[in-house]
Amino acid sequence: MPLEGAVNLMHALHEKVPMGIITNGLTALQQPRLECTGFRDYYSALVISEQVGVPKPDAAIFDYALEKIGNLDRSRVLMVGDTPESDILGGMNAGVKTCWLDHSTRPLPETIRPTWTVKTLGELKALLLA
What pTM, to 2 d.p., does this model score? Predict the structure, then answer.
């Protein structure tokens, strides 16, 4: 089940920007999860750590994903995630801007500083389409 605001955000971004997913996990679990959302065709790349052999926050998995999407200018790439230690730190390690989706379930580690923080996908949409 997608997060509240996901359908609206995906429709707003679809065909405007290339999007990809980088996930730590097993292919057998991650691919069906994405299929259930109905968003599979919205993504240019689905990068699963099991297939690449390197998990987030290693910059190598981000390098691989960016290569699959088309070697975008990193100054124009945004990593959005809800796990500071893998998503945000990984984006920082890869030299891209980051946005932490803060579900208010735990504090942000002092050494991890996202470029932006949002609480909802609606806030993310406003940030991206401002």
Answer: 0.90
